[in-house]
Design brief:
Layout (H helix, E strand, L loop, with lengths): L6 E5 L3 E7 L2 H12 L14 H13 L3 E8 L2 E9 L16 E8 L9 H15 L5 E4 L6 H9 L3 E8 L2 E9 H7 L5
Parallel strand pairs: 5-6
Antiparallel strand pairs: 1-2, 2-3, 3-4, 4-5, 6-8, 7-8
Helix pairs in contact: 1-2
Length: about 190
């Protein structure tokens, strides 16, 4: 049986979004479909077979500085989010992580029937989950410079590009979003 959601948000237009921890063995088949789909080219798992996907998510599950969450939309698997500590993963030696920094990746499932505003609702849910932790002050991302679709979404929720960085698998826009920047995009000026 899958784990219970650890975070839930209701979008006024699109319904319920929830996140639960990935179960590497049980979720590998659906995750394999998503990460090997042409839409997920920037996820860098295009050539992975099912056992490789399960192994990767088992590795993440065992890592104290990295975890993965399956996102549900109205109860159906619809997106993936990874959260990591940038002081220990991904950006070590590239980004001077501060206390309160958290790294993030997200992926929406491929679909033949796109829903207007869905990906932004997913990203808003992810950001709300991350900032629900009072210790998180800033979210750090490093999307591929060629991933133009995600750059506008990131900007819409408050991310600012800090600089271009060279990572082993890509050139990326190191971008950050503080709690206040995110809240400002939500109309909350606390």
């Amino acid at each position: 049986m899958s784990a219970a959601p650890v975070f839930t948000r209701t979008d006024p237009a699109l319904g319920e979004f929830a996140l639960r921890p990935v179960d590497p063995a049980a979720d590998a088949p659906v995750l394999h479909q998503w990460v090997t789909h042409p839409k997920a080219v920037f996820w860098l798992m295009q050539d992975c077979d099912l056992p490789a996907v399960e192994k990767e998510f088992a590795r993440i599950d065992a890592d104290p500085h990295h975890d993965a969450f399956l996102g549900l939309h109205n109860g159906t698997p619809a997106f993936l989010m990874e959260r990591y500590d940038p002081a220990h993963r991904e950006l070590v030696g590239i980004h001077p992580a501060r206390p309160g920094d958290i790294g993030m990746h997200f992926l929406t499932a491929p679909t033949g029937t796109p829903v207007h505003g869905f990906t932004r609702a997913v990203l808003t849910t992810v950001m709300e989950m991350l900032f629900a932790d009072p210790g998180v002050q800033r979210v750090v991302v490093e999307p591929d410079t060629r991933n133009t679709a995600v750059h506008s979404l990131n900007e819409a929720v408050g991310f600012e590009i800090v600089r271009t960085v060279s990572l082993p698998s890509k050139d990326a826009y190191l971008s950050t979003c503080t709690r206040d920047q995110f809240l400002a995009t939500r109309g909350d000026r606390r």
